[in-house]
Design brief:
There is one protein chain. The protein has 179 residues and is an alpha+beta fold. The protein has two domains: 38 residues; 120 residues, Immunoglobulin-like, CATH 2.60.40. 33% of the residues lie in helices and 34% in strands. Strands 1-2-5-4-3-6-7 form a seven-stranded antiparallel β-sheet. Strand 4 and strand 5 form a beta hairpin.
């Protein structure tokens, strides 16, 4: 018998000794794969900007919520198709006071955050379109649930609101062909 055959028979006879080695290799490979996927996922590392400052300013936020309750303004966001760019979206906000009267000439800001990719958040200043309507083009095209945080300032009063909307986009081909 040759030396190679003896070694091969020895390895075959002791094959169960390799089970822990293969299991350990599989665990290490799975751990490396999971960590790599987690680190390379853009949305997985999204964090709230200035979260510490927001936590420290909790009392001011509670006062703002109380002011929102006093003002009782109604801010209704809609995400609609853009007139300027096919396949893009436009944020429209309707702003009215507690009596349903449109608020004209306010300064309106909005933060649009796609939940799927929190790093793609966009800060917008909305233009007044008349009759309590404000709008701005959205430079992002990410479907799914979005959080829209709006701030309306008018005659020394400030109103803040947060809502979530589900936004679906047509495929780029369908948008270009007009379907």
């Amino acid at each position: 018998m040759t030396q190679g055959v003896i070694v091969l028979r020895s390895l075959v006879a002791n094959r169960w000794a390799f089970v822990p080695v293969f299991m350990l290799a599989a665990v290490v490979t799975a751990a490396v794969l999971v960590v790599t996927l987690a680190v390379n996922d853009r949305g997985a590392t999204a964090a709230e900007p200035d979260y510490y400052r927001k936590g420290a300013a909790w009392d001011e936020w509670k006062k703002q919520l109380a002011m929102n309750g006093v003002l009782r303004w109604v801010v209704t966001p809609n995400v609609v198709a853009s007139h300027a760019h096919a396949g893009r979206a436009r944020l429209q906000l309707s702003v009215a006071d507690k009596h349903g009267m449109p608020i004209e000439g306010a300064i309106v800001h909005a933060d649009v955050i796609p939940i799927l990719d929190g790093d793609a958040r966009v800060a917008l200043v909305l233009a007044h379109d008349g009759a309590g309507q404000y709008s701005a083009e959205l430079p992002i095209r990410i479907g799914g649930q979005w959080e829209i945080r709006s701030t309306v300032e008018w005659h020394g009063s400030r109103f803040c609101d947060r809502v979530r909307r589900t936004v679906e986009f047509q495929s780029q081909h369908a948008a270009e062909s007009g379907q």
